[in-house]
What does this fold into?
Amino acid sequence: MRELDGKVAVVTGAGHGIGRETALALAAKRCRLAICDVNEAALESVRHELEVGGANVTAHRVDVSDKAQMEAFADEVVRAHGAANILINNAGVTVYASFEEHSVEDLEWILGVNLWGVIYGCKFFLPHLKAGGEGHIVNLSSVFGIIAPPLQTSYVASKFAVRGFSESLRAELADDHVGVTSVHPGAIKTNIIQNARLVTDSHQELRNTTQELFDRLGTTPDVVGARIVKAIEYNSPRVLITKEARVADALKRLMPATTDGIVARVFKRISPR
It folds into this structure.
């Protein structure tokens, strides 16, 4: 999709971080925007920022894990804008805990947002993307959709699933002029780590240390937003963002049998005692 001017772009989790920067990057390409988030204050702030910049934008308070809300969201977007051409499934959450410590409710929450949110978005917006004659879907996976560190079993499960889902969906839609991109960021300066649920206090120090590491060494979200826009324009199947994502991908390709052990040792070393 080389021409984005006038296209209607839908961005979930747009109240902050990658979602906010992606919305701003799409607005710079003169897209019309439909943004959603569960945080109404953050959502309103981004809506105002976009409108001040001259964007045509609607804001919608949506829980992406809720099927009825996502179905209604698709209808609202088309009523407001007359179409939907681009879908960015960005909303995401995480939990710091071992699998043994996880409750079933924790697992349902994270899979509801990270996986079902993506599935619902694709399911309910796809008819509109196809109706426009040309469309594009961007699903946010992660470097943890390539490698699998400890204490992130639920997040890893969701992001590996998003990666596989995206690859299969891309193959299905190849003849329908709807592209699909999976995006795999590494360390990005967002609040997802700080907002992660803690099942026990034993992992609070690790969460804080990880957030400090991301804040010090991470890539800024605007870089991700720019790469997402480029991926839409060039119909890229997969985008690796940050050096650690590229290294992880190379290791997994070159040493698939030993990479998991390397990852486990690295994360053990950086974890507080």
